[in-house]
């Protein structure tokens, strides 16, 4: 498939995990892709083997507005347009409100929420020109709550409602805005969890499909939401969670 031939896509947090899988998926479907993130070496590894004429490696910290604005300018200067903005970069801190610190709070909010706001704000004028779209990466944690992740839940909950609001505000401009809400996915952030077999077995009991996701499985849904196949879809926060939210996270009963 070449659903994105002639399109230009920015993916933040593209150095690993969902971001890397998503950026590669768009490139494989014909797009020119900006691999954006904080570490050039990781971005270069993620983009290895792709058509270099259609790849732009751009280092940026999404928690810094001027760096996000520079990222969007670089994409437009290189390729002449912007069609899809994927706000994926994120971080998490575990702990209760008394265990995690105010600095932890500001770190999570700066990346997971401010970064999405900056990305949407910087990209919107260009997306209005192309009648493009935004896909934010929220989380099932943005649709409910879970233990010891209140800072992350707060940021992702805000992303969920921000996505809905942007869709309402900019639908008349021809810009669609959606979000994916993954549950447990194999990434750098969950590496320790995946190494804990007992924990993973317990978590799998809560997911009807019986396992966590692979990054490529989330990337395929992001690509769908950005494609013409989803041309009448906007304001959706789509769980990509193996059925976790449908089952309310409850394990099967004996």
Automatic annotation (TrEMBL):
SUPFAM superfamilies registered for this protein in UniProt: NAD(P)-binding Rossmann-fold domains (SSF51735)
In the UniProt record, the signal sequence range is none
PROSITE patterns, sorted? ADH_SHORT
The domain of life is Bacteria
List each copy of the Ketoreductase domain by range: 7-187
* InterPro entries the record matches: KR_dom (IPR057326), NAD(P)-bd_dom_sf (IPR036291), Sc_DH/Rdtase_CS (IPR020904), SDR_fam (IPR002347)
Q: Which Gene3D superfamilies match?
A: NAD(P)-binding Rossmann-like Domain
**Which family does the UniProt entry place this protein in?**
Belongs to the short-chain dehydrogenases/reductases (SDR) family.
Query: NCBIfam families this protein is in?
Result: PRK07231.1
Which named protein is this? 3-oxoacyl-ACP reductase
- Organism field: Bordetella genomosp. 8
